[in-house]
Amino acid sequence: MSFSQLFTHISNLSLRQTSNSSHLPSQNHLLGLRGLLVIQSFLFTFFQTFLPTAVANSANTTGPLYQLILRKSLSVLFWNESLIYSFIILLSARTICIPFLAKPDRTVCASAIFRRNLRLWIPTFIAFSLSATAFSTASTSYITDFLTITGNVSTTAPLRLRSFLTYFNALFELFWVTKSYSSQAANSAFPAGMLWVVSVLFQQSYTVYMTMVIAPYTRASWRVKALLTFILTAWWVQSWAWYSITGLLLADAVLNMDFASKSRCGFKVGKVRVPTWVLYGLMVVGGVVLQYLFIAWRPEFRNAELYGHTGLYTGGGLNSQVDESEPQARDDNYLIVVGVMLLVETYEGLQKILRSKLLVAIGRRSFSVFLVQPILIYTAGIKLYLRLHSSALSHEVSTLICFLLCLPLVVVASEVFYRIVDVPSMGVAHWIWAWMRK
Question: Residue 41 in contact with residue 191, Cβ under 8 Å?
Fold first, then answer.
């Protein structure tokens, strides 16, 4: 079999297996939701680079008035980094357990566990290698010049990897770190500093896998109580398991407990039946209000909640030594994410919107977009800006032109990456698993 035939076979195998096992048609709204999140991640990456003052929680706290207005309004909901990665982590947990919960078979479970590392590692390896080639074999002084010209202190030039050993260790440790995710070398060497999310997704995947095996063998009511206890204890120690086990519980309720129909029936308060959308809506509104209060009004108290957990790695008391520079599982994000997920899982109308062909297509390519977009923005986007700036164009005009270039460029490059790397990586994982079982 020639290489091209093998490549075609693996790609076809991946597409067939994906449609048969990894995604149930009834769960396609989750792909649409992923599509929305990756669009938001593109906006965050672009704005953090070119309009940092317009990004919630960025280090650029002063700037043009229009950016400050965006920072305190639209950015809170539409390109808020902490909300995006919180949603991604919970949604990943909600998704990866679907095959086993839909078909609780030991082979399905073993296959998911075995293939997960290959599914994440192969695309990450290719994207990280491309990034290392772009930023470690050539000078990144143009990025430093750009940051100086624009006054951007919210991002930095990617760390240059000086040797193959440094490159190898950075990539290797990406799948081993269990804390201080954003300060690891791989994240520092990758543009935009969002690669740490892969570390959390990988680690939390196995938290979900180890927990989901109880589903077929326990009573639903006791399972719910056990997982709620798990969520509370994970919240207390400030573990990302707080989010991931919530995703697992939600998936279990949807697939095994007829959550949608029960949720639509509402609940009684005295003699009055209250629709559940009121409760879910209050959760979303509560989270949004907290976001606006501590981003637009009193940003100095933004991280106060982080000190209300136990200091798991710093002592026996409260978390008095929390590292605020690290990504954190937050209460306000949790309220928004869970509230939105409950609304989506309850109402078919919302699911129908998310099942649109465009959003589902973007969702299938979300990992490719996530990996490709920062590389292109930090190469083609910044270089184009510098060229335009040297032509005496204003910052706003230069930024608009860069946006109009980067958007289609990311779309095309992500599609290429998806077909050449992402889809075959799923096929390779299935192929190796099949070979292991022979």
Answer: no
